[in-house]
Amino acid sequence: MPHKLATSFxxxxxxxxxxxxxxxxSALKKLSHKSLPLFFKGGDIISLDPIANGSYELDIKALIxxxxxxxxxxxxxxxxxxxxxxSCQSGQNFKxxxxxxxxxxxxxxxxxxxxxALRGVSYVIHEYGLGxxxxxxxxxxxxxxxxxxxxxxxxxxxxxALLSSKDGYGKFxxxxxxxxEVQIEDARKSIAEMFESLVSRGLTKGVIKVDAEGxxxxxxxxxxxxxxxxxxxAIIFENWKNEISIAEYFGDNTDITELYNLESLKNRHxxxxxxxxxxxxxxxGGFRVVLRQAQGxxxxxxxxxxxKAQT
Length: 311
Hints:
By secondary structure, the chain is α/β, with parallel strands linked by helices. It has eleven helices and twelve strands. The radius of gyration is 22 Å and the shape is globular.
């Protein structure tokens, strides 16, 4: 005799919704046919571009690979690796890749993505962040932007207002964040040991990408402070804090030989609407992104430090 639960099942399919879902599926399939072959968090800000366009921060990707192609290919240190977008795009250009990420949720995806993209590459995932000492700290992860996660501590030079505005919030509210306890290790000790290991294996020229949401200044200066004389590296980092002088930013670090700002050479008319400037660049066929030697004060943007080997 038929089971009542089986015979009573009767699910109504709304045909308009059914067709709309099919159309969305077809549209997304076409839009994402060049998507990076990695795992992403749906709806997350940093996932949209690599899903839709098959790339992530193309100017940074080009910068990393430019240095790798010109002798800086021994190592890539990705400090603030998140789910591995930068390393998974460019890691194949290096002999060794090290990925630092304290967020355990990101690490789970990072392991899968690195396994997909870095086959044949020597890589290590370091499941911790870098700070002033070995300790547990709270990591604030925006629900819609895993790439904007930050640590609240005296080391972080960004205040709550700047951090929340970067994540698209009007003001800082804890309910906008998933708060996780994460492991932080002594940056000076960790980076010094990494350099010692690299040098012992003849790996002395590489690229370091720092994306640490307010910890950039601390980490860049730590790298410069412990860097062996035989190491030469290009350090890529972003800055969101204006009105700080370059001399103040780097303090006593004498290893800094050259500092550059990544600049987009777009056709812009200050008084023209955005659509007009976009049209001008469209008609021009594109625009160049170059490195300009930085002087005076920092502004918001991406910077590059070349720390040369010392004889």
